[in-house]
C-alpha cells in the first residue's frame, strides 16, 4: 500500500509538472506574439503599383525613407517603374517583381521574394484592382470581363491576404495588411460598374472575418485594415468620364493620385506604431478614408453654390 501511495504521489507530481510546463508554453505563445510598435523605416509591398494610386503611394513611402516592393501583372511595367524610381531613391530601396494576383503561385512567389528582399514585411497594401476599364450595364458585360474583375478584386485580395499573413506570422514583430476599397464599399449602388462595386463591398466583411480568425488562432501581432482613396483621377476612373453626370462628380470630388497618397501615407505609417490595444496586446483595426461622406457633401454644396472645381479635370460643356 505504501508503495502504491508513493507511486500515486509521484504520478501526481509529474502531472502537475507537465501541466505547469504546458501552461508556461501556452503563456509564452500568447505573450510572444503580442503586438509591439514597429518603428520606421518600413519594408512595404504594394500590388498594382506601377501606375495610378499604387505608384503614387510607392513614391510617397520612398520619400519617407521606406523600402518598397513594386508589383503589377506586367513584367515590362515593373522593370520600368523600378528603374525610374531607383534613379531618385536608390536601388537598395526599390525592388520589384511582376505578379498576377489572381494566380496563387505568383502571389506566393511575391510574398517569398518580399521577405527575402526586405528581411521582414511590415506593411502589405492590396491595391491591385480593375473594372476591366469598361462602364456599362452588368447584363451587357462579357463573361471574360466579369471573370477578370472578380478574380482580381476578390480572389486576388484573398490570396494576397493569405500569403501576407503567412509571412507576417513568422516575424516576431508581425505586420499590417491594408486592403484598398473603392466605390460600392459602403453598400451604395454603382450603376454602370456593378461588378466592381460588388467586389469592393465584400472587403469590410473579409477584414472582419480575418480579424476574427487571427484572434481565434491567438495571432495578435498581424493587423487587417482598409484604405479608402475616394475618387482618383486614374485610368480606371477617367475611362468613365463620358456623361454630364460623371464629369460633374469627377470634377467635384476627384483628386490626383499624388494628393491622395500624400494624405494616406502618413496615416498608414502611424498605424504600426500606435494602433495597439495595451490591455489585450492586439492590433486595433483601422479604416483610413480620404474622401469621407462629410467631405464629399461639403464639396458638392460648395460646387453648387460657387461653381468651384468646375472643369477641374474634364470639360463639362
UniProtKB/TrEMBL annotation:
<dbReference type="GO" id="GO:0010304">
    <property type="term" value="P:PSII associated light-harvesting complex II catabolic process"/>
</dbReference>
<dbReference type="GO" id="GO:0034256">
    <property type="term" value="F:chlorophyll(ide) b reductase activity"/>
</dbReference>
<dbReference type="InterPro" id="IPR052625">
    <property type="entry name" value="Chl_b_Red"/>
</dbReference>
<dbReference type="Pfam" id="PF00106">
    <property type="entry name" value="adh_short"/>
</dbReference>
<dbReference type="InterPro" id="IPR036291">
    <property type="entry name" value="NAD(P)-bd_dom_sf"/>
</dbReference>
<dbReference type="InterPro" id="IPR002347">
    <property type="entry name" value="SDR_fam"/>
</dbReference>
<protein>
    <recommendedName>
        <fullName>Chlorophyll(Ide) b reductase</fullName>
    </recommendedName>
</protein>
<comment type="similarity">
    <text>Belongs to the short-chain dehydrogenases/reductases (SDR) family.</text>
</comment>
<dbReference type="GO" id="GO:0015996">
    <property type="term" value="P:chlorophyll catabolic process"/>
</dbReference>
